[in-house]
Amino acid sequence: VRLVESGGAMVQPGGSLRLSCAASGFTFSNYGMKWFRQASGKEREWIAAISFSGDFSGDITNYADSVKGRFTISRDNVKSTVYLQMNSLKPEDTAVYYCNSRGDLWGQGTQVTISS
Questions:
Q1: Which tens digit of pLDDT belongs to each residue from 52-99?
Q2: Rounded to whole angstroms, how far apart are CA atoms 18 and 7?
Q3: Which sign does the torsion angle of CA 109, 13, 60, 36 carry?
Q4: What does the angle CA 40 – CA 21 – CA 91 come to, to the nearest 5 degrees?
Q5: What is the dihedral of CA 64, 94, 104, 78, to 10 degrees?
Q6: Which residue in 3, 66, 81, 83 is deepest, having the highest Cβ count within 10 Å?
């Protein structure tokens, strides 16, 4: 049972990145997925969530105010992967980004650095 994030990089302000989180060892479509981030010296904060695919309303997404309108969370149940599309990136988005599922399952994180 594991989550593996990828896609982190250093980009300039205003740029875009897409993070991926590949899940294995459990029935991915049965669980909601979340993205968190942790900047140096700060607490880990939740930024985005997507519901499990059994919700007949379709995927429900929620975002922290700090990323709303710039970030988009999505999932591909065939690939057991959740994505975070990040646009209009700002220096304050610099952090290690983690995916989370089942409450206590975390990936190892991927570093995102926004700098000119």
A1: 766 566 689 999 999 999 999 999 999 999 999 999 999 999 999 999
A2: 6
A3: positive
A4: 35
A5: 80
A6: 3
